[in-house]
Amino acid sequence: MISLTSYAAQTILLAGILLVFTGRKQKIDAFIGIVVAFWVIAVIYIYSRYGAEQINFYSNDQAFHWRLLNYYLPNEGIPLRMEAVLSWRYPVILPAYYISKVGLDGILLLKFSQLVYLVLIYRLGRRFISRNGIIPRWWHVALFCGPIFIFMSTLALRDIAIAFFAASFMLESNYSMRIVGLIGTLLLRPHLAVAMIVGLGIGYLMKNIKPKFLIPVISIGTLLTYTFGSIMYFVGATFKDKIPFRLATDLFNQAKFIRLAANLFGLQFLTLLNTEYKAVDASVSSLLLARLVFFDTFLTPLLFLIVLFSFSRKWGQLRLSVFFTFTFFYGLVSQTDWNSSRQNMPFFVMMGLVAIVGIEARKASREELVA
What we know:
The chain is mainly alpha-helical. It is built from 17 helices and no strands. Helix 9 (159-171) packs antiparallel against helix 10 (175-188). It is globular and about 65 Å long.
């Protein structure tokens, strides 16, 4: 365990490096400046309070990353067997592992990587908005780089990296970046990569849907995609874990649909109240209060749903692709006990940006009619 002074110095050094590389013509972007300042204060505070035990703060995934950096990689090297490639999270772990050899703290480097990916998502979102002829505004940023992302950047996790790679695959216009996005997602969350491919395919097939068929087609498509995802979970388990194949059970009971709605709006913890599985050691009231702070976890999906059912041929395919990616992904995770808001972070980026474009497009249409 390093001293607080040394940890704070490393934190400030890394933040300074990021500001130097992201500055434009000696001018620091206001959002990036605010986020980096918050990150420095929060990261130092977490270390001052928890010390080495910070790896157990919020999520024990940080402890797994610590073991990868300090035990598995030093003793086993970089295994290329399929199991390790898909579970050792190489895109975020390997850079931190090698850079830590110069004396920087490995967990701090993982936190820094999440901050970097947050900045990359911010720039991706601005490019996407500008590419669609929209001037980026502050409220736009809140929908795809909101409070949940800023908070998660202070933790040594992989979720913001996954969100960046997934958004790159779904939203970038450059095909090289889309390939990088798919590979990155595959290495960090393989089932999400499969879900995105399925979602893009369904969106393409439904791109010419007529307005009068929008609601029934989406409703039927949701059930079919969810069912297909549930079945594919067991196909994947058979392939990966060599367990006998079986069909999903209890697909259409009330609990599954309540969980689907809860997952969409970031209220997963409500579905676990009467189970033995405890994802977060906190009261329901404190978790609901936290949703007011992390308003993007429910506001972004809500606006996306409104835009989804507001027919527009110009944006229809992308909206449907994002939505059916989510429903297929939910079909997969509905067969597990894991039910975390962190899983939705890639969808917050995609849904937020699609919602922004849809809202601004409708505003422009109304202004044209008034004119």
